[in-house]
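Reviewer 2 asked us to include a model.

Predict the structure of this chain.
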Amino acid sequence: MRKSFFTTTALLALCAPAFAQSAMQGGNEQIVVSATRLPTPISQVASSITVITGEQIEARQQRTLPDVLRAVPGLTLTQTGGAGGQTSIFMRGTNSNHTKLLIDGIDMADPATSSGAADISKLLSGDITRVEVLRGPQGALYGSDAIGGVISITTRGGEGPLSVRGSLEGGSFGTFNQSASISGSDGGFHYAGTVQHVLASGTPVTPLNLLPPGQRRNDDSYDNLSASTKLGYDLAENFDIGLTARYAGSLGKITGDAFNFLTFSSFPSPTRTRIATISYQTRGVAHLVLWDGRFDQTLGLAYGSTIIAAQDPDNGDSRDIGDRVKLDWQGNLGLAEGQTLVLGAEHARDAIHSNLQFGFPTVTGQGITTHAGFAAIQSDFGNGLTNSASIRYDDNSRFGDRVTWRIAPSWAIGETGTRLKGSAGTGFKAPSLQQLYGTFGGNLALKPETSFGYDVGVEQDLLGGAVTAGATWFHNNIRNLIVSGPAPTFQLANIGRARTQGVESFIAWQALETLNLRADWTYTDAIDAGTRLALLRRPRHKLAATADWLATDDLTLDATLLYIGPQIDGNRDFSIPRLKQDGHVTMDLAASYRLTETFSLFGRVENLFDTSYQSPEGFLRPGLGAYAGIKVNL
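Predicted model (structure tokens):
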């Protein structure tokens, strides 16, 4: 029987539900979706992609999305402090707003913020079942924002009998977290819901040496309550509908910066800034399969809104309110054996409804409309040779049209266990609404930032498949980067260029049936093409090593070692625009023990070596922390 839209959770995010569940359950080969917008065996995917499962997230006890992504190859994170601190993603050396984030098919970019990027720090991980991190320019399938790549997240769905789960934990830095979830199905109705609460009430973030003499450090606090649900109903054998919705409300109390008019410098404020964020997103879908399964199509309608309000005693209040409405359609047509055509169309409207900076109104009532269409063909020519080719047209009401493309061939040589792969394509990043219309530096003449990138790689199975090793070389040229102009207007302009290149390599070893070891090393050379200087916050070297061990039927043990090499950054107020930041090593350990079928105990230690480091400069990351709790499964 055809699986319903709701049970094919891995495809809900990418509008191709009809084929997924059977593919993901049949055989041992991993199936990925984001690279082609179709369920595709990973051996047929030429793009570089990392998959993180919900089981891995739970075993490693990672509570926020930044924690989940921190060890991913080709990707560097900076976070201003602990949980809830503003987080930036630099994928393959590209800028922090060059990565598209999708959750269950919902574009999580925030139209009201200055860069238009999503702040992943507000996203909790308790409802995540799958994360796909797709690297390289992906404009041909995803449009704007995907210069560095795409992060696609699928959340928990429901099937089978009623299941109720909950957890409670506490620990260092005033941590007190709770979660509860319910899932199941009844006839054609499928349901799932999750509520999560994360509290860290005392995280030291401000380096003591930055405080004026006699000033006391105020620790940061963060409180987040999030809820999500996924509902579906099978109306007929070939037709079903679905709804996903999520809400997040958070309050952060952080140490901002005060300005000293006598020395014309800033210093950490003696009072804390309150930042309240409320966001909600929803997406409804209708899914229809025709022609004996050869034509699979999904129609989706999504809406998202974010309100960010800050009370800053030193710099005045700020407020951002923005939303997005998006209508999308995707149809997958089986042309012949091994040949699938993917067609898609999108309509989106981004708007700012209110914007207040330093107590003054800036952008209000502005919006941009985008229409887009794309086509892709996924080909399996036999003998291990496959190819994916795609092209997309975007029409933006502000800057006009843009065409992007991508081609990605792969050849799996079964006799030798070798896989050769490569890809080339283009991407772009449309100017944000604040960059266009903002009172401070806005420029209506801005054009999109553009990129061309390619990569080539090889993977090799060894010892009968127990060991796999591989390496991929990547290169990106980025033009028309939007940078701030000189004082006093600081008007933005398309005058920047960048070149990023490097190597992503790995070795994975299934040492035992219950023990998996993996190491990833990334080398990134990211420079300003005009000055030839290294781009900020892009370390050249990153090494991640993980060990996942099912020690007994009841005991799981996990370890993650992470090395981030030296990099260039500015100091906290950028009065020193370039300085060398030393590298650092951290180690995280996690353990879980099942007491009964109902109750489990778990605990973890983060930053085992109590490494003191700043990322970015001027903001301490948490030191040694210990946490423990209990899980209930009914």
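Residues 1-27 have pLDDT under 50 and may be disordered. The chain has six helices and 34 strands. We have added this to the supplementary material.
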